[in-house]
Amino acid sequence: MAVKQEKEYGKFLRYTLFKTSPEWRRLSLDLRRKGRSEFAAALEGSSAKIQTFSYNTIGIKADGDLLLWQMSESLEALQESTAKLLQTGLGHYMDVSQSLLGIVRPSHYVKKQTAQEQAISQPDRLKYLIAYPFVKTIDWYLMKREARQGMMNEHIRVGHEFSSVRQVLAYSFGVDDQEFVVTYETDQLEDFQDLVMALRDTEGRRYTLRDTPILVGIYRPLQQTLELLG
To answer: In Å, what is the CA distance from 25 to each residue of 21, 30, 82?
Structure first.
């Protein structure tokens, strides 16, 4: 029986993008304060089972204003948490516009991951979050493992050249529409863009079928994130 290498393996990882309706900002200040407080309390109430990080996406994504990165050993807990959020005063004026789900597990191509490659274990969060669904082509999986490993070695080598960019990878096979949820963290978006441009020149890029939509959020304390919603 395989032994989990880290306690993070086996956790469900989910990104939920919420869109607030224009009617929310037309409510009185008191009602909005109450709604935000209820939303924050609902998140706090689930903190024993769910780890949550909040990101504001206002002015960045047209289909969302708030992005939650959540991790839990229980998919049921994630579902119940979302239901409770949508029942708050703020949640009544929210829709879920994007949702990405995956399971954290050991890499097929890296025997021992560095902190850069699996930043889920880091206690701090960097300023910017970039998350997107990822799907490989059928031809990728029909290749011999040695050929895939060679291309992944090149991919990993390029990634290590950008030490300011951290990664989290979750597997979505069988639990969501994509195959992976790929996540990056950085304090400099220019560094991440340089990394993406460098990866365009690698052989493995031929076998990327889909890597959109891209969700970009700015990490802020929850209270500040919610206040920006109005």
So the answer is: 8, 12, 21
Predicted confidence band of residue 10 (pLDDT cuts 50, 70, 90) = confident
Closest by CA to 170, choosing from 21, 58, 37, 10, is: 10
> What mean pLDDT comes out for the span 17-46?
98
Q: How far is CA 82 from CA 85, 178, 230, in A?
A: 5, 21, 20
Name the helix (H) or strand (E) containing 210: strand 208-210
Residue 180 pairs in a beta bridge with: 134, 171
Top-level CATH class of 119-216? Answer: alpha beta
**Between the CA of residue 121 and those of 11, 51, 93, 157, 221, what are the distances in Å?**
12, 12, 34, 21, 19
> Is cis: bond before 213, omega within 30 of 0?
yes
Q: Where in the chain is the domain with CATH 3.30.70.1030?
A: 12-103, 119-216
Whether the per-residue pLDDT at 109 is higher than 90: the answer is no
Q: Decide yes or no: CATH 3.40.50.300 for domain 12-103.
A: no
For 219, the 3-state DSSP assignment is strand
* Torsion sign, CA atoms 32, 35, 41, 43: negative
Q: What is the pLDDT of residues 77-94, one digit of tens each?
A: 999 999 999 999 999 999
Share of the chain above pLDDT 70, in %: 92
Burial of 173 (0-12, 13-18, 19+ CB in 10 A): exposed
Confidence of residue 114 (pLDDT cuts 50, 70, 90): low
Estimate to the nearest angstrom the gap between the alpha carbon of 59 and the chain centroid.
19
